[in-house]
Each structure stands twice: as structure tokens, then as C-alpha cells.
Amino acid sequence: ATPRSAAEREIALLREDLTISKWRLDEKDQALVKVVTQVDSLTAALRKSRQRAADEASHAREADAELAVVQEALQQRDAVIREQEDRIAELEDLLVSARRQSAAATSAADAVGSGTSAAAVREAHERIEDLQEQNAALQKSMLALQAEARRREAESAEVRREVAALRNTLAARDAKTQMEAAMDSDDDPLERTRMAARHSRRADSIGET
After folding, report:
1. Residues 137-174: tens digit of each pLDDT
2. Separation in Å, CA 54 to CA 49, 59, 68, 149, 182
3. How far is 90 from 6, CA to CA, in rounded Å?
4. Cβ of 102: how many Cβ atoms within 10 Å?
5. CA 27, CA 190: separation in Å to the nearest integer?
6. CA distance 148 to 161
7. Where does 3-208 sit in CATH, by number?
8. Global pTM value
9. Can you give the residue ranges of every domain in the chain?
10. Residues ≥6 apart with Cβ < 8 Å to 28
């Protein structure tokens, strides 16, 4: 073999080595592009997940504030209902007292003898009429208060149903947020990036051997 042919073979081998090195470099570039793409995708997913968590937290704070307002209104209504119940009890007592007085006045009028003057009889009957009017007024007031108490109690029941529905919504939202957070923690972007890099290095080592 002449020196020329040996040099040509060496040049051919060098070109072959250069081609192989270029292929390997291209493979590394492709692997690097894949890793960068995965990192960008995972970063976007993480950013989206954090934004979703922030939105959920904002919605939860708004719902908590709304629930507090509703609960305060419910407490105020309950207080009004208790006041009305107390007033109804007072009117009932007054009504019983008025009926007793009316019955006593009626008995006194019936017991009036022939020796009693006409003025005394008229006075007794007027007293009876006054007591009957008071009795009717008290009865009317008590019925009105009872109707108002029933109406407010129905409103309070509706508010309680709204509060229960709101609490169920908040509980479902919290459960969803916790589940998504758990899924996000299982799909750690950094861990996935490390795994991709390890796969790339493993591919390089296999190519070099």
C-alpha cells in the first residue's frame, strides 16, 4: 500500500467519524428540543393549575362572604320571630284577662236587681261593650302577629335551604380543588423534566457504545 492510499483511507475514516459525530449531535439536539418542549408544556400546565387554584380560592372567599351575609340575615330574622312570639304570648295573656273581665262584667250586669238605677245598668253594658271591643282588637292583633310569624318562619326556612345548598356547593368545590391539587402533585413538572433528561442521557450513552 502506498502512502497515498493510506492517507485516503485515513481521510475516509475521519469523514465517517465526522458523519457519525454529526448524527449523534443531531440526535442530542433533537433530544434537547424534546426536553425543552416538555418543560415549556409542563410550565404552562403548572401556570394554568396555579391560576385555576387561585380562581377557586377567590370563588371560595366570595362564597364564604356570601354565606356569612346570609347567616347574619337568618339570625336577624330568627331574632324578629322570637320577639313576635313574645308579643303573641303577651297578647294572649291580655286576651285571657279581657275575657275574664268581660265575663265578670256580664255576671255583674245579670245580677243587677230591680232596685238598681238605669244609669248603673247602662254603665255596666257600656263596660261590657268596651271589654268586648278590646277583646276583638286583641284577637285581631294576635292573629296578625301569628300570620307574620308564620310568614317569617317560612322565609327563614327558605334561607336555611339556601345556606345548606351553598354549603354543599362549597364542599363540592373544595373536594374538586383538593383532587386537582393531588393530581398536580402526582404529575410534578420537575420530576417529569428530570425523567426526560435521564432518558436523553441514556440514549446518548447507548449511541456512544
Report:
1. 777 777 777 777 778 777 777 777 777 777 777 777 77
2. 9, 9, 21, 43, 15
3. 124
4. 19
5. 23
6. 20
7. 1.10.287
8. 0.42
9. 3-208
10. 200, 204
